[in-house]
Structure formats: C-alpha cells, structure tokens
Amino acid sequence: MTTRTNEAWLADLRATGAAHEEAIHDLREVIQKGLPYALTRWLSSDSPLFEPLVEEVTQETLLRVLDQLNTFEGRSLFTTWVHKIAIRLALTELRRKRWRDSSLDELTENEDAPPPPGLLADPQASPESSAERADMFARVRRILEEELTPKQHQALVLLSLQDMPMDEAAKRMKTNRNALYKLLHDARLRLKKRLALEDLTPQDLLTAFEGR
Q1: Which of 6, 85, 89, 176 is within CB 3.0–4.6 Å of 78 for a Cys-Cys bond?
Q2: Is residue 79 located within the same domain as residue 134?
C-alpha cells in the first residue's frame, strides 16, 4: 500500500483512472484494518453480524469520504478523519438495526448524528401519516426514474436497499468493485442535487423507503 500525505490522498481520490482506483483500494485497506478493532468495543468479533457490518460500513465510508472530500480541513491525518467517519457510520448502523445494549446507549448518548427515522417511527401510524408516506414514496420513485441512469438505479437498489454485498452486486452488474463505487457515488450526487431542488432531505428519502 502506498504511503501518502494528506495532500496526496486528496489529489489521488480526486483524480481519475489508475491513480483514483489505487487510492480507493488503499483506503479500503486502511478502513478494514482499523474498523474491526474499533467495533469490538460494541460488538463481539465472533458475532455473525460482525463481518457483514465491517463490509457494509467500509462501503458506506468510501462513498461518504468521496462525497465530503472538500470538508476535510487538514487538522488531523486524513486516515484519522476517515476512521472517525467509519466509526460514526458503524454506530449509526448498529442503532438502525437495533444491535444495541445498555453499554452502546451509554457510549453513543452524545453522538452528533441523529438516529435514523425508523427508530422513532410510530408502528401504529395514523391514516394521515400513511398517506403522507405514500405520497413521499411516489415523489421519491419519480425522482429516481428521472434522475438516474438504469445502471445507477440498479446499483442503488442492490447496494442501498437490498443490502447486497459489493462483490455480489459487481458480479451481477458485470463490473468491478471500483467502477461500482463510482457509479453509486455519482448516483448519490445526482440525487442530492435533485432533493435540494425538490426541498427534500436525505431523511425524507430514508423515511419513504422505510415506509414501503
């Protein structure tokens, strides 16, 4: 794995071609080396949930890092910044899936990220709430159809909605892991811009899908 300065990480991740692919590969190794050690504070490495969670969070961290490169201020090592993102995403995912106990509650009570809406949703939704969710889902479906290419839509469904492992999704779409990362990254950028135009938030999008 190539040793990089903060500036080199940013340059390579913003590049195209071989430099970008190598940086993605190396950053994936960085995440998967440090994340399991951090996660053992909240989830046993012997748990059948452990390895799938590491893979899922690694994938999401890479996408989040690419989305937020411009927010890195250089006050720490780039890899330290990435690890913080990975841990935050892991804790959010643990909460979302309700893999939690009292120690997790205590450790995350001051977490900045709000809990996903599914944790706060009323299982006995009123007719008005159900109608609102149905309308929201219709709007989300329209946005997906209008904004995404067929391949971007397929990648989003397989990886974000069906929780398919990255390697399996790449195989099904007859592509490779790095190309699939880029495809999903571009899809999310397009959705982010369209959501802003529609005066919707990512939380609205999550709520629509959780209310299906």
Answers
A1: 6
A2: no
Contact 121, 208 (CB under 8 A): no
HEC profile of 128-151: HHHHHHHHHHHHHHHHHHHHCCHH
d(CA 124, CA 56): 30
Q: Quick count: other Cβ atoms within 10 Å of Cβ 114?
A: 11
At residue 160, what is the residue type? Answer: S
152 assigned to some structural domain: yes
Residue 44: phi and psi, rounded to 5, are: -65, 140
Dist CA 157 CA 16 (whole Å): 25
Closest CA to 84 of 125, 38, 131, 134: 38
Q: What is the CATH number of the domain that holds 144?
A: 1.10.10
Structure tokens at 61: 């961290």
Could you tell me if residue 175 is inside a domain? Answer: yes
Mean pLDDT to the nearest integer, 31-39 = 86
Q: What is the mean pLDDT of residues 158-183?
A: 82
Does the residue 1 lie in any domain?
Answer: no
CA distance 155 to 11: 26
Chain mean pLDDT for the chain: 76
The domain in which residue 80 lies consists of 6-108
Confidence band, pLDDT 50/70/90 cuts, at residue 20: very high
